[in-house]
Design a protein that fits this description.
With 235 residues, the chain is an alpha/beta fold. Helices cover 48% and strands 11% of the residues. The protein has helices at 27-34, 39-46, 58-62, 66-80, 87-98, 111-123, 140-145, 148-158, 179-186, 193-204, 221-234, and strands at 52-55, 83-86, 102-106, 127-132, 165-168, 190-192.
């Protein structure tokens, strides 16, 4: 997230516990993780009086579906007293603002959790036309240990000519560092979980596009300005 921090904006973190760090995250673990209380985490973050709270685990809420994700986000907003967004919801928002409908998908998740993610996106109006599973049972550390070159290879393998955009899901994965090379070589937008969260945050906070690092088409001045204008019109 540090690579995506807009000028004049501070970013503060609180890590939520409640799951086995040595286990390979699967659908059941992520569903249970999303049901853990966030009271302490929200309280810790409230000490800095944030303007916005982002929930940075994509798979935790997508494993439950879009309706749960929206309710989950509303609960964070109620507890914190400020606007909130989830990584899963931010992916949907990003794809909507880009105007795409058919996507390629990959992540470091196990195949069953990828199925959940693809189902979540399908319920949100996006068809996955190609995918690539990581073909390894990666724990939390292993997901974060994938280097940008490995993420790039995963994205290339996931893509197809039918896809209008490539989605790389997982906030733990270093996907932001692979965006520009993938967009250059695939000639299409690449959307990652962390990038999508920063896109949503920038629009919700009404930031000037010029203050946001232009990493990928999603964070271009043109797309940010269009999303900001649409948000103001809907207010």
């Amino acid at each position: 997230m540090g690579l995506l921090r807009p000028d004049g904006v501070s970013v503060h973190f609180a890590r939520a516990g409640g799951y086995d760090l040595d286990a390979v995250p699967d659908s059941d673990q992520m569903r249970q993780f999303a049901l853990k209380s966030l009271d302490q985490v929200v309280s810790d973050l409230s000490a800095v009086r944030p303007d916005l709270v982002l929930y940075g685990c994509t798979s935790a809420t997508l494993a439950h579906g879009p309706a749960f994700d929206r309710e989950f986000c509303a609960n964070i907003k109620q507890r914190s007293g400020v606007e909130a967004a989830t990584a899963a919801g931010a992916l949907v928002n990003a794809l909507t603002c880009l105007g795409v409908h058919k996507i390629a998908f990959s992540s470091p998740y196990v195949a069953a959790l990828n199925d959940e993610a693809i189902g979540f996106l399908a319920q949100s109006g996006f068809e996955t036309v190609s995918r690539k599973d990581v073909e390894a049972d990666l724990g939390n550390y292993g997901q974060g240990a994938l280097n940008p070159e490995e993420v790039y290879a995963l994205g290339r393998a996931a893509d197809s000519s039918k896809a209008e955009a490539l989605v790389l899901s997982c906030t733990e994965m270093r996907a932001v560092e692979a965006i520009e090379a993938l967009e250059r070589d695939l000639a299409k937008p690449v959307v990652t979980s962390n990038q999508a969260m920063m896109f949503s945050a920038s629009v919700m906070l009404g930031l000037e596009p010029a203050t946001v690092p232009s990493i990928g088409q999603l964070l271009s001045d043109e797309v940010l300005a269009g999303a900001k204008a649409a948000s103001l019109a809907a207010a």
